[in-house]
Amino acid sequence: MTEFTIWGFLVDFSLMSGLILLGTILRAKVKFLQALFLPASIIGGFIGLALGPFGADLLPFSDQFSSYPGLLIAFIFAAIPIGAAKVQIREIIHRVREMWSYSMLLTTLMWGGGALFGLVVINQVFQDLPSGFGIILGAGFVGGHGTAAAIGDGFAQYGWDEAMTLGMTSATIGLLVAVIGGLILVKRGTQKGHTQFISSFKDLPTELRTGLIPASKRVHMGTETISPSAIDPLVLHISIMFFVVGAAYWLTERLGELIPVISIPLLSVAFVVGLIFQFIMRKTKADSYIDQRVMDRIGGSATDYLVVSGIASINLTVVLDYAVPLILLFVFGIIWAYLMFRFLGPNIFRNYWFEKSLFGWGWSTGTVAMGLALLRIVDPELKSKTIDDYALAYIGMVPVEVAIITFAPILAFSGLPWVTPIVLLITAAIIVVVHKRAGVWGRRVLDSKQE
């Protein structure tokens, strides 16, 4: 296909859907893939990369195939505030202070550490690289394929088109690090007695390995909040999403005309428009007709398609051109992530440090879904309340993530690349100081048997 048409769009999503289905089947049947806990979208993405335009070129993707991640990430961020339950700030502060602090440290240190390592080491050795190269680590590891798409799109506005491929590569490597490294940590943790809910890696339920949930353990993915005689409940939620993202796109275009020197990511505007929409729904008492689980499923669906398209559209030629600096960046990222797991978690969490830190390892190198998969290994019934705490803590983290994604590319290409790591690392230092003064830091030891 030489141009984008509605039929090209259909073919692209048909192929991506087929890859996801194939990944689901392989995950359910192949023991090796079960042992790695790879999501179906990751498996499908690798198959798409092998058979797609940058591999064997057997799959007829359209020329617009690589542009989908930039749109899909807007749906993911728009879905975050819509339908969310009202939460008191006081509840967030008192209940999830530890989780918020830990998550903020992982975020600021991974983004800031990668940016600083890039400037101090990589850019000094490879002087022809853009000054924002180190940001690719945080975009892929902490952010995942969605954030990598947003950062790549942001850098592309300033002429660095290869950033999208590098970001997707970072996110893909990050997922592999999350899976393989996480499984190693689980095995070591069970051997040393750090886990609270399992004593052996062999105690895992079947559905965690195959991905197939037996009938007795299935739950509803949502609730009908409106009569199908008026409008299909799923169409109601999908229409909200398209309206919000469409409004965000229109607003982004207008802002681009008013402030042409600054490129504002669509995902940032989509999140803000989502917040405004949710505020209006709450004020008009209409928010009870929006089911958060359905909105989460729409966002999750966008994530699966984003991962498939992101991996399958990786330009291997670009990756090879940047191979050496990428390897240096990833080696630093892996060591940095382990140091945070090893020293931050035990000193911040007073209860279930291993379970909560393992979840942090999963999402700070891969995705929240991968963090949850690792958590379910060591906490099958989620008794540690890690997910509940993270869901609340994430409310306070989103503005920080949006600010990083929005301003990091702008600063990098405005001659101020040092601002990003300095601000982020200072923020991390402030969090540590506050914890020390609160008498929390350092209470934990790396031996759960002493609890």
UniProtKB/TrEMBL annotation:
Q: Where are the transmembrane segments?
A: 6-28, 35-56, 68-87, 99-122, 163-186, 234-252, 258-280, 305-338, 358-378, 390-412, 418-434
Q: Does the keyword Membrane apply?
A: yes
Q: Which UniProt keywords apply?
A: Membrane, Transmembrane, Transmembrane helix
> Pfam families, per this entry?
Glt_symporter
Is Aminoacyl-tRNA synthetase among this UniProt entry's keywords? no
> What's the name of the protein?
Sodium:glutamate symporter
